[in-house]
Amino acid sequence: MQLPGELTGTLYERNVGILKQYTSDCFRLVHMRTCRRKGYEERFKSDSAEEKQERTPGEQKLTESISRSRKMVHELALCNPWEFFGTLTLSPDKVNRVDLNIAYKRIAKFINNYNSRKGAEIKFLIVPEQHKDGAWHFHGLFKGLPLTHLVQFSLNDNIPDKLKGYIQQGRSIYNWPAYAAAFGWVTMEPIIDHDRCASYMTKYITKDLQKSSIELHHHVYYCSKGLRRAEIVMREPMIKNIENPDFENDYVRTKNLGSFLEALPYFCEMEDIYGKEAFDCGGSRCDSEDQQEQGISFDSRGQTSPCFN
Predict the structure, then answer these.
(1) How far apart are CA 224 and CA 140, in angstroms?
(2) Contacts of 120 (CB under 8 A, 6+ apart)
(3) 190: containing domain
(4) Lowest mean pLDDT among 233-237, 271-275, 294-298
(5) Which residue in 8, 132, 173, 203 has the most C-beta neighbors within 10 A?
(6) CATH code, domain with 115
(7) Do residues 19 and 121 share a domain?
(8) Are the C-beta atoms of residues 142 and 174 closer than 8 Å to each other?
(9) Does residue 103 lie in a domain region?
């Protein structure tokens, strides 16, 4: 019989690199120090002190759910070309704003009907937030909402001072009259920095929200069907450690990259891709070398894989 420690070589892979593509110029390299192989299940469990720590099922579920939800919201926010950041409130005389399920269904139906009537193609990613009095509102990202369907707020409008301050700073804030008539106050602001906006969206997924959502069997976020998601474009052993990672803990390192080619040196020697003679110019690749003559083929994403054959 094999002992648990002897199963490590079979159950797990070491130094595995996973490259995810979010957009044409946004990649994330994840270095897993230890990764369980697909199709294998652990037959023995460790009796480490850490695993002996008492955890209630609710606490464990909450921690894992928060992590999954934040990752998915961040991924959906990065992968899609959002145009507006919006805040959707709910007027008590127009909708039951205490029942999240009813409120979301009303909004989703409104957007579907709006698309049909107006010939629009509105897509959304929204996260609910609860007031202290139990009422809900939503923050989210939108695309496909024509700018001509919006009305820009001005300093002459009866709006909060905070909003007037944004306008004085030069920010363009819009009203969506159709939504306002159906539900209440709404603001839409064009997105300038997509990366920052994606990170900003995750801040709304808090422990309080997650706990209430689990207890009430509600979603932590809502989104349209057919949104783009990140694609794993490479999963290979790594030959080079990530230096200056964007994130690091005891188990994983991550680094954001701007292209697929930036990731290749972490997986294979560049000489294996371009050929040794292509690096005879003082250790760097000679630009005069024709990639096609080196036998390099790229797919639709600009990827190349000669060193993984």
Answers:
(1) 12
(2) 114, 144, 145, 146, 149
(3) 81-223
(4) 294-298
(5) 173
(6) 3.30.70
(7) no
(8) no
(9) yes
Secondary structure of residue 220 in the 3-state scheme: coil
Question: Residue 257 burial (CB < 10 Å; 0-12/13-18/19+)?
Answer: middle
Partners of 26 in the β-ladder: 23
My answer on whether 120 and 171 are in the same domain is: yes
Two tokens, residue 35: 């990764």
55 and 90 in a common domain: no
Query: What's the total number of domains in the chain?
Result: 3
Q: How far is CA 195 from CA 20, 72, 220, in A?
A: 16, 14, 21
93 and 205, same structural domain? yes
Contact 136, 96 (CB under 8 A): no
In a 3-state reduction of DSSP, which class is residue 298?
coil
Spell out the residues 6+ positions from residue 227 whose beta carbon is closer than 8 angstroms to its own. Answer: 76, 79, 80, 123, 125
Task: Give tens-digit pLDDT for 136-161.
Answer: 999 999 999 999 999 999 999 999 99
Amino acid identity of residue 26, one-letter, is: C
